[in-house]
Structures are given as C-alpha cells and as structure tokens.
Amino acid sequence: MKPYQEEYLALLKSVEGFAGALADRTDTDSFIAAAREANLAAQRAVERGTQILREELFPVLDNILAAPLEEIRSLEEFAGKLMTGYSMQDPCLHYRVNLALLEWARHHGDRNMRIKELYLVGLSLFNMENMLSPSGVSLFSTRMRMYFIEGASYYDTAYDEITDPETRGYIHRCMGNIPLGYLAKTPASVHAKLEAVKRSIRVLSDPDVRAKTPSLPWDTYLYRSHQECTTLLSNLRTGNVGPEAYALVLESAQTVQAEQVKAARERGEPLQPRWQYAYMAARYHCGAMLLPEFLDGLYALSMARGENDMDAQSIFSHASAPAYYLEYSKTLLNDERYAGEIAACAKRMTERFSRWLIRASLMGMAEDIMLQIRQFFLVYREKDCGMPYYELIQNVFAAIHPATYVRMWIAGQTARTLTFWAADECPEKLVGLPECAAPQDVIWKHERLAELAERAGRVYDLGMIHFFSLETAACRGLFEEEEALLQLHAHLGAERLREHESTALLADVALGHHRAFDGKSGYPVDFSLDDSPVKPLICIVAAADLLAASAGETFSRYRPVVPFEEGCRRILEGAGKQYAPFVSALLESPERREQLRKKLEAWKKEAYLDMYRRRARMSGS
Asked: Long-range contacts made by residues 187-191, C-beta under 8 angstroms, separation at least 24?
C-alpha cells in the first residue's frame, strides 16, 4: 500500500476509540472533558483524512483509466483493508474505490477482476443500505441488485470459459446475494426474491456444478442461501406470499436448524437463538405450531441469557427476541385469554432490555447492537410494554449515545425558553397549537405549551439512531451518498413518533426541523410547514437545534460545535428565510442573548447530570 493509504487506515483506527472513551465516564466533569477531547481529536482526524483523500486518492480515482497496474493493485489492497470479513469501517469509501476499480476492469477487459469488483461494489451498497434497516425505506437496493445480477450473469454466459476458482466463487456469491436487493414489499417483489433464492439453492445443490470447481466452499454457500431464504419470514407475517414460499422457507429453516444442531453438538454449546426463532417461526407459519406456543418459545428465548451476557447470541435474546414477540403477539391483543399475559411479558422484557442496554453501552458495544435496537423501536407498544415511547427514546439515547441525549436535552430546554418568550411577546404567533385558538389561549396555557416544546426538543432527532456510525466512524467529510442517507433521518424519526400516543403530536417537528421557513431550501422537499398544525413548534425547535450545538461537545464529524454568537447571527440573518421571523425577533435584544447564553452554560451540566440519573435508574442502581 501507499503511505497515504496506511496513514488513512491508522486514522480510521484512531477514531474507533473516540465514542468508546465516553461510555465509561462516571461523573459529569470527566464526561464533559472526555467529550471535548474526543471532539477535538475527531475534528483533527477528519481534517487530515479529508486532506489525504483530496490530495492523494481522489486524483487517482478521477483518472483511474490511466492508472498503471501497480497503482491498481495498491488500491485493491487498500479497499480490502477497509473491510474486515463482512464488516466495513468505511463502506462509502470502499464503494468509491471499488467502483473506480470496476471501471478500470471494464476498460481494460479484465473479466475476472470485473466480476470480483461487481461483487464488492454490491457489498458496499449493502452495508450502506443496512443503515436504513429495518425501516423498509431504501436508497440503494435497486443499484445493489443490478451489480449482483450482472456478476451472476456470467454463470449463464461464460462460466465454463472461466477457469479461475476464485472468480467462479464470486459469481456464486453474486447469485446468492441477489435476494438482498429486494425489499419484498409487494407480491411481485416477494416472488422475484423467492425465484432468486430458489435459483441460487438449485445451482449450489447441483453436483455437476460442484464437480467443476471442487475447491469452492459449496456447503457454506448453500447454507448461507438457506439462511437468506429464512428472511422471507417477514413476508410470511404479512401474508403476501403463496404456498410455495411457505414450503421453501420451512425447508430452509429445517436445513439451517439441522446444521445448527450438528454444530452445537460438536462444540458442546447451546443452539443459537436466532436460528431457533427462524425454525419456530417457519413452523408456526406453516401450521405446525400454534401462535401461543410460538410466543412462549419466543419469550423463553428472550430470557435464555443472563443480563450480563454480551455475546452475539445474547444480543438476539435481549433485543431481537422481544421485538419479534411484540410483533407476533399483536394479533392476540384483543383476546382476553392472552392479552394480560402478553402485556406482563412485554413489560418484563422491556425492563430487562433497558438494564442490558446500559451494560452493553458500558462495554463499548453500542454500535454493534444498533440494528437490534432499531428493530425493537420499530415494533414497540406503549400500552403493553409499560413505558411511554417518549421515555423509551430518552432511555435508549442516554444509554447508547450520551452526546446526542445531552444535545437534545439542551435543545428541549432552549425550545421551552423560546416558547415562554414567544407566549409573552407575540402570543398570536403560537395560535393554532393544541387548545390555542386565540392569543388569550396561548397566554393562559403558556406553561403547557412550553412543556410541549421541551418534549419536542427531546425527540426531534430520533431518526439519527440510524446514522450514528456516520457521525463517528470515518475520518473524512461526507460523500453525497451519505448526505442523502442523513436527510432521511427526518422522515424515519417522524414515522416512529407518529405511531405512539405519547409522541404522535411531535412527529411533524421531527419531519420539518430542517425545512426552511420560506420553503425554498432544506428537506424533506415535499413537506410544507404551512400544512402542519404545529408549525410554530417546528420553527422554535429548528432554532433550538442550532443553539444547542453551542452548548457542548456534539462528538460528530459533520455537526461541529457552533459558537453561541455565531448561532444567534445565523438565526437573525436568516429571518424570513431559514428561520421564522418571530423566532429571530426573540433574539434581537443583546440582553436576552446574554441571558440565554448563561442558561445554555448551566444546562450543559444539568443535561449530563440528568443523563447519569437516567442511566442509574435503568441499571437499577
């Protein structure tokens, strides 16, 4: 590798520890100091990493067709170092480098390299797409599928001409990964995914195909295809599949289960909960197990591991199994024979999940369990789980991303203060908020409105739970693909908030807090503040979001600390454009700005204290 590539990899390794350094802080002063140090170190890493890529890598990628073979081999090694197994440290950079290598392979007629790069580019897109899971929203699935399809097409057109075993292996990997590119929301897409899975299994099972390249790990490929087939369980739950899908999923689940039993016996270890669930779910959907029996099995899986266990199987038991329990049990909520027991189990699992989450965070595992946390968030039910969704959000953010918890806590206090001021100086601007049909209503209910504004500030960035890795993982500026991903946080957060009684009124705040007041910029572009019943609240939280960035160390490579005076200047200069004029007017007075500045300084420490109290309650200490 080139020296600049080694330096960039070293920078990547250095930033891995920044977030973890915050997890084990036991008091507010040490946390604030550690956050400040991590923020500065991350900023330096981002500046240097961006400089390295701009000066050394991007010129090569821009002229990739003219790159000599030595340069190409160096880029291949560098891209390989960005990926460990199936985990990528910097998936978007991995994508950019391999996309350039694919272009070089096409231009120079290197078929073996082209097939390999088609697989690696598709894999990069899968890792980027995985940030959105399990929301059902997609940015890259079609593109990813097309790369895998192209790689797999060589099985039909040139397989016998290709003699390199590794290249043949990439063809089969591409074929096995085609199903990953189907969201399978409609019967047509489910059918397409089903056909892709069937073909992969059929080819991998063919003895004549295996005989052509006996050195390939055929059983591993086949096993993974069967594992991928079990992901159709989500479609069995919705019922938008035919009987063939049920039969194929059950067959795959049985195959995986048999392999799991064999491996467990050889190692003397218990079965992996994830695949026990898949086997039980397939049997339930195919009529071999009743729903109450299946729910009992899921509950047992959720309790199978101790609260101090932190291995991969415990992640499933503490987060995924409760999520599946909540999803499947909703069909029995109106049955009085089961509703009470379901609610009791859901409450116990939620409490256990909270305690386990704190321990996982203290061990630096927050990033490892993000998918399972999002899965739990997706199916949570306030009524049965014994905790308002609003409180669940506070608990999870306090546990897994304290810096964001603190920032939203401060944003909540800022929004509360701005609402008090607005109710006093321009109550007519808050008319239309709940129970406020006239300015006099605003004056009478100013306390309730201020509380509502604070709650909005405490949840408006919920969608960022999908993108914490973009804040902390890489050491460079954002690429356009990452910018597009980040913009989805407004939509994803609003979707979750809208589904729960304690947060439904706040959904538009999450959706619109990055939309400009005049509607000419910001996102989502199809959202209009004028159509929202909480427009004044959105305007207030938009300003509070900016001001909160001045109060503490945000520990984010794309969200820098904004000096307070700079934040005020932006709000004042953006009056009528980015920010609502009535909000900007609240900050025109130098005396009021000074008052708010002092409040923000005090709130920073209060926010950390509140976070520690919450974490203590969650852990039961």
From this structure: 187/240, 187/241, 190/232, 190/235, 190/240, 190/241, 190/245
Same domain, 345 and 410: no
Are 556 and 22 in contact by the 8 Å Cβ rule? The answer is: no
CB 380 within 8 A of CB 392: yes
The DSSP symbol for 83 reads: E
**DSSP-derived secondary structure for 571-618:** HHHTBTTTB-HHHHHTT--HHHHHHHHHHHHHHHHHHHHHHHHHHHHH
Task: Label residue 136 by pLDDT band (50, 70, 90).
Answer: confident
Contact status, residue 141 vs residue 132, Cβ threshold 8 Å: no
Nearest partner of 104 among 91, 93, 118, 114, judged by Cα: 114
Of 239 and 458, more confident: 458
Q: Where among 365, 387, 409 does a domain terminate? A: 387
CA–CA dist 66, 401 (Å, integer): 45
Distance (Å, rounded) from C-alpha 400 to C-alpha 357? 8
CA dist 513 → 394, 462, 508, 550, 576 (Å): 19, 12, 8, 17, 15
Please say if the pLDDT value at position 46 is more than 60. Answer: yes
Token representation of residue 492: 């994803």
pLDDT of residue 619: 82
Give the mean model confidence (pLDDT) for residues 81-108: 90
Q: What is the DSSP letter of 465?
A: G
Answer whether residue 559 shows pLDDT above 80: no
The domain in which residue 381 lies consists of: 290-387
pLDDT interval class at 361 (50, 70, 90) = confident
Report how many domains make up the chain. 2
For 492-500, what is the mean pLDDT? Answer: 96
